[in-house]
Design a protein that fits this description.
It holds the Pfam family DUF488-N3i. This is DUF488 domain-containing protein. The protein is of the alpha/beta class and 120 residues long. The chain has one domain (4-119). The protein is built from four helices and four strands; from the N terminus they run E-E-E-H-H-H-E-H. Strands 1-4-2-3 form a four-stranded parallel beta sheet, with helices on one face. It is globular.
Length: 120
């Protein structure tokens, strides 16, 4: 089974990353597009701006964020389609879900990783 990782875009990349896919809606500060070493920027799969602002990367809100984000992935057609695209890629490729958040345990890439693993 291919490997799925979540990693900060600010961390160095290496060949073991497989496909590097940015899953943030907003481009990360301080990273030039030509230096990002991305295979794809799939901003359609990112949480809505409203949900992202509500969460505010507050670990105490993470459980609620996770529930609401999964709901968005299931009910928003654009997000659902992007999520299905990610799942298809994960079936046959190692992938690294890239995010800009400082918190490595409480972010959308962590939620996506769990959801992809449930679906493939």
């Amino acid at each position: 089974m291919p490997k799925i990782e979540a990693k900060r875009i600010y961390d160095s990349s290496d060949q073991s990353n497989g496909l590097r896919i940015l899953v943030d809606r907003i481009w990360p500060r301080g990273i030039k597009k030509e230096d990002a070493n991305l295979d794809e920027w799939l901003k359609e799969v990112a949480p809505s701006s409203e949900l992202r602002k509500w969460f505010g990367h507050d670990p105490e809100r993470f459980e609620g964020f996770e529930e609401k984000y999964i709901e968005e992935l299931q009910n928003d057609q654009e997000k659902k389609s992007a999520f299905e695209k990610l799942c298809e890629k994960a079936k046959s490729n190692d992938i690294t879900l890239l995010y800009a958040a400082k918190d490595e345990k409480h972010n959308q890439a962590v939620v996506l990783k769990k959801e992809i693993m449930r679906h493939i």
